[in-house]
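Box 4.2: Ligand-aware structure prediction
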Amino acid sequence: MLTRVGVKMIILKIGGSIITEKDSKEPKVDYKNLNRICNEIKESFSTENINADLMDGLVIVHGAGSFGHPPASEYKIGQPFPNEEFPEKRIGFAKTQSAVKELNTYVCNALIEHGLPAVSMQVSSFVTTSDKRIYDFDLEFIKNYLNNGFIPVLYGDPVLDEKYKMAILSGDQILQYIARFLVSDRVVLGTDVDGVYDKNPKTHDDAKLIEEVSSIEEIIQVESTTNIDVTGGMVGKVNELLSLAEIGVDSEIINANRPGAIGDALQNKKVKGTKITKK
Ligand code: ADP
């Protein structure tokens, strides 16, 4: 059953590609982007905007970037493994959990320094998956924090999985689940390209931006999604968002590298990007 928090709620996902130097071999925060985005959130989340009925509640979900992906892929977390490898896998899980927690601390600290009441929520301590999909996620905590004016901050995390013993729960799936069951008013995904293209824009100069996506067929036609990280890259994102569109929750993918884009999106101004919506 769908439940609503008692506030007008926006869910903002900030990609790991934005807040970290994603291709770096070492975990590295992109402080320039992080601080700029904190400023944009701060400006949008001002009392003035609350009064203007733009936004009462904000949930932030962030990706793992160069913090989570190296240990997760080194230890192949989420792939099937024989029982004798369990001890080593546990170390990989713990290393990944520790790395993403560290990034989350930097993100929350930056938000707090900007005067935003960010509270960290580590999904590996209360969410489990079955075949890599969430099936047990108590949203009451998030609701309570929202109703008390906090900004819950969640992030992609390794979790226990019924089938594979462990899995990587992507920020994109977390966002989808929260938006679905708390019934979000708006969902904004900030990544490092302008939206969904007909080809990977990083490798194809002639890639064209698709302004609106409304069916899985359009996604299947997307020629290249080669930049696939351990959580599925752009196709994974769009699939999550399409399942939201199905139940009437629209979302938009925008370029968080563009100064002002997140702020504008939070304030409901038109921003270049891809809208995921039901036709
Ligand atoms: P984030 O870390 O922001 O969540 P990802 O790195 O997982 O983002 O996914 C964004 C990347 O997906 C882009 O940098 C782009 O290179 C890649 N990509 C692959 N195929 C496409 C496509 N068809 N349209 C847009 N981006 C694509």
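In the box above, the bound molecule is adenosine-5'-diphosphate. Confidence is low (pLDDT under 50) at residues 50-54, 224-229.
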